[in-house]
């Protein structure tokens, strides 16, 4: 059975893009993989987080993942900082990664914007911590959204350079599992920007704990154009906002874009957004309800994470110890 590793930052409430790009895939992959799912709090603090909020968001995210169908009897769910192997391997990888490689990373450019000098060194070396997350478990498959593809290519570059520099065949090659549909859900306010849980505007995203009224309001306000829905997908080219809403509909209703357009062609966005609201509410209301129930017992959630961390540690510790030996650390 292949091992999966994937993470999500407790930097906010998970949004629809996290669900379609990652979480929904995680749930399905549990059937035939050994899965390690991680709330990557060390990644979250690459951008300042209020400590109390970070703690709360970590528990809320655990609840959301359980509500979405992550099965912690069979698989591992924990928070990254609880397993020191991540930080230890990340340091080794910082010394393997080349500055030129990091300079090409588009996530850093997007997040730092023009004010590069004022961002943390952690944000810059984020991809080498991500490589450590995955390779501390020698995971071979990583389900992520399209925005993480470049970081996974870098993970393979780091693994190869480590193996080459130390003359070993130690770290395996990893494969990105990117969903065929809705791999990059876009912001509701700007069809050229990806939806993010850390975007300052909550109007830009649907959060997995939003109730039906909030979802309806956010979709009503979502940016669109004045045209009607076309009959063919080609008619969505150069209409990023329209394309995004149709893509979300198709992914959540398990239809193709062609099928959605066949049903709604010629419609304006007023009626289409109403139909879309029903589809979104149907998909996420059960998760939101179950999350509310699970949040009533924070001790249970903390225990789930603690036990997950112990199981994660048992896998990662021997792998990272071996990597430390390979580089020549005296044991
Ligand atoms: P942040 O804004 O703090 O970076 P985020 O919304 O980008 O938050 P992450 O925790 O960075 O979420 O990513 C978790 C997973 O969700 C990753 O696999 C990522 O590829 C996926 N993902 C994030 N945003 C989208 C999106 N808009 N569409 C599809 N997948 C996404
Ligand atoms: Mg992100």
Keywords:
331 residues; binds adenosine-5'-triphosphate; 2 domains; binds magnesium ion; 5 strands; two-stranded parallel sheet; mainly alpha; 53% helix; Tyrosyl-Transfer RNA Synthetase; three-stranded parallel β-sheet; Rossmann fold
Task: Briefly characterize the structure.
The chain is mainly α. 53% of the residues lie in helices and 7% in strands.
Structure description:
By secondary structure, this protein is mainly alpha-helical. It folds into two domains: 211 residues, Rossmann fold; 84 residues, Tyrosyl-Transfer RNA Synthetase (Orthogonal Bundle), CATH 1.10.240.10. It starts with a strand and ends with a helix. 42% of the residues are buried. Helix 4 packs across helix 8, helix 4 packs across helix 14 and helix 8 crosses helix 9. The protein is globular and about 70 Å long. It has 14 helices and five strands. The structure holds adenosine-5'-triphosphate and magnesium ion (MG). Adenosine-5'-triphosphate binds next to helix 1. The site of adenosine-5'-triphosphate has 21 residues, from helix 1.
Q: What is the strand arrangement across the widest sheet? A: 1-2-3
| Structural class estimated from helices and strands | mainly alpha
Largest sheet: 3 strands, parallel
N-to-C terminal Cα separation, in Å?
32 Å
The number of helical runs is: 14
Low-confidence stretches: none
- CATH superfamily grouping of the largest domain: HUPs
Rg of Cα set: 21 Å
Give the CA-based shape. Answer: globular
Our estimate of the beta-strand percent is: 5-15%
Mean pLDDT: 97
Main CATH class of the largest domain = Alpha Beta
Ions, cofactors and other ligands present here are: adenosine-5'-triphosphate, magnesium ion
Name the helix and strand elements from N-terminus to C-terminus, one letter apiece.
Answer: EHEHHEHHHHHEHEHHHHH
The count of strands amounts to 5
Q: CATH topology of the largest domain, anyone? A: Rossmann fold
């Amino acid at each position: 059975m292949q091992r999966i590793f994937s993470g999500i930052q407790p930097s906010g409430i998970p949004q629809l893009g996290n669900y379609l790009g990652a979480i929904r895939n995680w749930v399905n992959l549990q059937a035939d993989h050994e899965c390690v799912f991680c709330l990557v709090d060390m990644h979250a603090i690459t951008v300042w987080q209020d400590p109390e909020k970070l703690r709360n968001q970590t528990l809320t995210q655990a609840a959301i993942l359980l509500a979405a169908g992550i099965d912690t009897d069979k698989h591992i769910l924990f928070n990254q900082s609880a397993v020191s192997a991540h930080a230890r391997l990340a340091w080794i990888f910082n010394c393997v990664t080349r500055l030129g490689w990091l300079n090409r990373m588009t996530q850093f450019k997007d997040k730092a914007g023009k004010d590069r000098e004022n961002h943390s060194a952690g944000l810059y070396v984020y991809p080498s911590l991500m490589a450590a997350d995955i390779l501390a478990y020698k995971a071979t498959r990583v389900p992520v959204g399209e925005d993480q593809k470049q970081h996974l290519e870098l993970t393979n570059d780091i693994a190869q350079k480590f193996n080459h520099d130390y003359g070993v065949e130690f770290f395996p090659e990893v494969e990105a599992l990117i969903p065929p549909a809705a791999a990059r859900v876009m912001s509701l306010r700007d069809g050229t920007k990806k939806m993010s849980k850390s975007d300052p505007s909550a109007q830009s995203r649907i959060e997995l704990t939003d109730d039906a009224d909030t979802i309806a309001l956010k979709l009503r306000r979502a940016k669109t154009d004045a045209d009607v829905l076309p009959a063919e997908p080609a008619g969505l080219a150069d209409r990023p906002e329209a394309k995004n809403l149709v893509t979300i509909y198709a992914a959540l209703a398990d239809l193709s874009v062609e099928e959605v357009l066949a049903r709604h062609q010629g419609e304006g966005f007023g009626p289409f957004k109403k139909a879309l609201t029903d589809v979104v509410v149907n998909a996420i209301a059960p998760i939101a309800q179950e999350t509310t129930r699970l949040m009533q017992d924070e001790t249970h959630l903390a225990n789930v994470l603690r036990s997950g961390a112990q199981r994660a540690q048992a896998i990662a510790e021997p792998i990272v110890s071996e990597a430390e030996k390979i580089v020549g650390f005296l044991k």
